[in-house]
Structure formats: structure tokens, C-alpha cells
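Q: Give me a backbone?
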Amino acid sequence: MKTLITLILTAFVATMSIPQEKNIETKSVSLDNLITFIVENYSVKTESSNSAIQNISFLIQVPEGNLSIEDEVILKQAFKLLSKRLNNDDSISIITYSGYCGVALKQGKPNDVKKIMHAIDDLKSSIKEFHQDGIELTYKYAKDNFNDKAINTIVMVRNPNAKSNGNSETTLSIQPKKKKNNAVLITAISLLPELIAIIKN
């Protein structure tokens, strides 16, 4: 009898724990392919569409100093595009790892473009509290902000230009400002195929 009661209690606890298990999907993409990734994974939502709610935590690899101008432009264009494809039911967060780790943008609406652009302009200053491990922080954050009604995803954005080393901050700080226009032009040219693909869709 005692064994039977123990088995019933064990089965009950196991059954109760299944719905509480937080299913968080992880995806990985290179920063250079982020715009294409958004086009392929997040279709435009309309009022009549029955698309699932999205709760996305973006985990962005950053250098110790500021992002390069090219990387910043790609991020801004990617999030502007995402804001047009998601709606008020969805939510996004931005967390950083590698050079420095922390929550740069708390969970909010994807159409709050001004707030998102402000965070990307200076990710480091947007972080209120720095952590040792950005990846561990992201999974904890995603679990704490889990939405039972949404598809919960962590999108790891790998940045080859953000390899953390002792000289990265110094190197970035001495880059001459006069190269800004050239960098933006080069980035715009490199984004042209992505923009054409978006227009076609």
C-alpha cells in the first residue's frame, strides 16, 4: 500500500512538472546574415493572420569597446525590419556577451523603434548591471520572462568582428571619424541584395 501511494505521488509530481517545463528554442546566426535570417524566419503579420506570438531574446556578441559602424548599421536595419514584421503581441529583448555581458534592452515591444535604436547606439551604456557570463544570463532571463502563449526563442547573433581581446577597445577608440561615410556606403552596398530580396517579398 505504501509503495502504491509513493508511485501515485511520483507520477503526480512528474505530470505536474511537464506543463511547467519552459521550452526555449535556440537559434544561431552570423551578424552578416541577420537580415536574411529575419526575412526567412519572421513573416509579415497582418490583422487577419493567425501567426504565433513571438518572444525573442537576442544574444549579441560584442567587442570590449563599441561596435564597428558597419555592425551597428546591420543591427539597426535588422531591427527596423523586424519591427515591421512583428506586432504589439510580440516582444523582444537584447542581451550582450563576449566583450561585456548584460541586458541592453529589457523585454519590450518590437515596434518601439526609437527605444531599440537608442539601445543599439550604445549597447554598453544601456546596460545597468554587468554580468560574468552573457550566455548563462540570457537563458536565465529568457526563463524569467517566459511567455506561455508565445514561441520563446533565443537568437544568438555571432559577430566575427567582436573577438574579445585586450586591444579591441583601444583599436576601436582610435579609428578616425572621417571614415564613417565610407563605412556606411560600403555597408549599404553590401546590404543591397538583402534589401532587394525584401522588396520582392
Notes: Residues 6-20, 164-189 have pLDDT under 50 and may be disordered. The chain has one domain: 22-200. The beta strands are 24-30, 53-62, 91-98, 102-108, 150-158.
